Request: fold
Amino acid sequence: MTRVVLVARQPPRSESLARIVSKLREAGAEVMLISMADVERTHADVGAQELRSLRRHVDTDPAFYRACRAMTDAGELWEYVQRDATAISWSATATILAAVDTSAVYSVWELGRLNPDALLRHGAVPALEAFLEGGWVEPTSRAQAGSRRQGARARGRRLVRGLASSSVAIAWPLRLLWRPILTSRRLDAGRRVRLCTDVVARMFQAGRLPAALTLRSEVASSLARPADRADLLGGIAGRLIESGTQPPDLRDAVDAELRLTDSLYARGEGEHAASSMLQATRLAFHQGVHLSGTTSPLADDPSGFTEPFRSSAAVAEVARPRGRRSPAAAPPSNRPPRVLIATHGNPHFVLQLENHLAATRGAEVRTIDLSGLGPASMLVRAPWRLLSSLLVKDGVAEKIAEQHLRELLDWADIVFIDWCTALVRVFNLVDPGTTRVVVRLHSFEAFTPWPHLIDPSRIDDLVFVSEHVKDVVVAQVPALLGPAGPRMPVIPNAVSLRPFVRPKEDDARFTIGLIGYQVVAKDPRWAIEVLRRLRSRDERYRLRLIGRHFDGSFSRAAEAYAADFERELGELESEGAVERYGHTTDLPTAVEGIGVVLCSSVREGSPVAILEATASGAVPVVRDWPFFRRTEHGPRTMYPPEWVVDTPEEAAARILEVSQDAARWRAASAAVSETVLTQWDLAATEGLYDQLLFG
Amino acid sequence: MMRGGWLARSDEGVDDDRAVVPDRSDHGCGIPVSSPHLLLLAVGFPPAAKSSTFRLREIANQFAVLGWRVTAVNAAGAMWKQDSGIDLSLLDGVHPGVDRIELPLERPELDTDIRTFSRDRALDPAAWRLQHYRKSWEAFPERTFGHWRPQLIKAAQEIHRRDPVDLVIASCTPYVLLSVADHMHRRHGVPYGVDFRDGWSIDVVKGEVAFDGGSRRGRIERRVLGDASALWVVNEPIAEHYRRRYPEMADRVHVVRNGFDRDSQPPPSGPSTVPLRFGYLGTINFSAARMSTVLDAWRLARTWEPLLRDAVFEVRGHVSAGASRETTEIAQMLAEAQVDGVVFDGPVPKSEVAATYGRWDALVLILVGGSYVTSGKVYEYAASGLPVVAAHEVAHDATRVLDGYPLGVGEPTLDPQELARRFCRAAHLAVEADMEMRTAARVFAAPLERPQQMEAAVRSLAASATSGTAAQ
Reply:
């Protein structure tokens, strides 16, 4: 079969590409798609015979990751492609190689040298046209042999390292033999790092934790250069994260990397320091560590875990308060206030604010996303350019920001930036003049590096959606409390609750609602445990799962969680105890039939679904979110204390207590509905934004 | 007599581009050699399948009918294959007295064969393109076509040497053609007319001046228009812009509207039956936001109107060009809207335009810009005799063209709710409009046929050129 290989850094979404893939296949082509994006997850329905997500298969050790930071998108893609034997093998046997996006042109150009017979095209439609025109030739055996040789070499290298690491991991006497080799200063440090990374990672995975930690420490202390130490500790941590294991002492790896960052910065190598800083942030704030599990070292100890960031000279330079020449001015009284809303993420919360400001204050509101920043958006999308410019101190980032943000800042009386991401740091590059800058931090940003990297002196108000998120952020970045820091009000997410108030049947009290259970952070297995306990007492209890189904494709940890969840769900579904309601845009109807709403999450910021369901009369049972157990605030200070429980046992007891008797449940239902309508309805909360923005 | 050379005369298809222009002859159609000779600079002439193709063909044909010998200069087929495509059936409508010259003009930025790329281009296509545009701009201030200037002038000189030219018409875009007309006038004293269609110094989409008079482009435009025998533009607002900008040539500015071509008009049809088919035909040059507005309205209308429940909305035309063809955000939106009865199936060959309109029950007119834009498709839509839903600014020149159209469904709008109501009204009109109403719609459109729109301007320019020639 004639093979067409499509290469894309970021392919168009599945639906539009599917139309072209379908035509290729109808014409008899075998279609493969290779990408930096996770196409194995996002493009499973595109119709290609094979999909290859390069980031899943290419080992991104610290040195490689750092090196890629400074590359163009095109250069980085080629680095990944040439490290992936499968991608090379497909390409060597392709008749047509096509770059679907501009960043893939260089990879296809290089692959064309490996496969000199293939037609090379820029664009999926031109590839289709070339295929339909015919006249191409099948690849010669020379190209295929080349690819086989390249693949065999890669496999050979992996085999040697694999054998070595397996033997050491499994048999301790062999470990004794390897130890002097791995710690010998006479041998090449780079090789020792690579080998030790394999060995120690395998030992961790084999459950030999103390021995692994000892060997890692011994080898690390034998390495003189900060880069080698960072490569070793970061390499092991990265390998464990990728395999779905929480790396012990992740903080040490972050610390080693930031020491490298600082040494590079001290030597005047700002660009390399920026690459290293990004590797440190990748390790410290990896989604697989904090957002794909039910525990997080940062949540356990926000101050201690992030201490290396506060000790880093390079981080301090990035976050150095640049100050402003003039203080923010009060909104004008002779014309409607002008508010610029800038967002980098989910625009859902912005729409409400935008409508409110325009409707009640007559404000002129302009809303922009990254596309409204022009070339300055590149600094947000590619943080290396931003950080390297700040560390090299060449003024380039400031110049770009000044050129493209000045007009926006001059127009606005208030700039409101939703989500505390790189966008905030880019706005911070410019002295805002008398324009007031307000930033809203929701929840996930507390587990990202950006609170460490923003310039607090150019933010007037840093708004949090809850006290406990503020606790976590301030513990990490106490400088926010300093004299140059912003005011830090807490305003919960505004939500219109009245449409949820609808009558309920008595039987609804036996249906427990769980709204949103797509990710590990929602910990739906905890809800399953509550259901089990309820049903052991009364089989009338059922669980209604509302929202998109659990997605285990984000990480290995999520994949493992998904497998357990599905198994447990299957058992209860066979008893008719679980209803998968699915995704809906009509939540008021979806919650009409539930009498109790459960929040099983390990972390939340200011969740609205629980309030909406409670407004409908569902009695809330909220887990004391484990991520915030150590903070001063949390659900126990946010909600009436009787709503909050610690364990599945407590949750089941609370549900039984309020729902066994219909009259009692009705009374509780009416009371909780009244409580949320009084405290959290839009009417009660939007005044807080008026107060914040217009005094 | 056929000879090899870089200047190509094309008698057949697009690949026959290596013959030279003949010496003065009767063009094989009985037009005497003593008749005047028009050099029509017409990039987009048949068989190119471009939006301007019919207009260019009509100019050539009308001059030929007046007894002129016409030489139409176009880019060769290889370039059109990369651009808007070619359609050999378009050649059928070309008057036999028209000679076609196809030059090997290139647009390397549209090339999608990566084997031809240098390493630098492969590494950073955007930087390479910028560099290419810079070089192009040096030759003439038009980034995509400026580098054609030497080739075009050389070709015009050669044509003139072999068969002296009495009149040049530069139909822009591309604007680099102005440099050829200017050259022929200064070097050889040949009079010329400029068919600007949309105009250079006015950005018709944004509705603002594109460049000021002191700029390089401004100086060229002033000089070239200053010596032109006539300036044609497609609507009154653009004409007014030029009259204001160059008061001294106000009497030479003429509105030469586009129109519909008989080839594109479907046969008369009676009331439709469900499931209804709505259609959009044309280059998809509007924003993703506008597409989104139309699709939202379509979805809403389908929930409101039983006649639309199983209706289909067929979108046909080019989406983007070059490498990103059919993989843009709009292509994605269209693919996602399949569940709502939206079908996207690429461009329609010019020869199938009438049949395509003939399959549809109502049309959706989606346009960019405002009062300076008319578009060519509004005339085709009017000639279709079908209900038309207009999704564009109210202050748009297309509004004037459709004013009083018997099968219109209300003012243009970009409000999704209002637009949805227009879809519902169009559905009712599609099934309820009787033959009388449909005939009235076609009668309304009859004066909009292209030949009638152009005739006076062609006669006037031809007359001024021949009187000038006689005087010389």
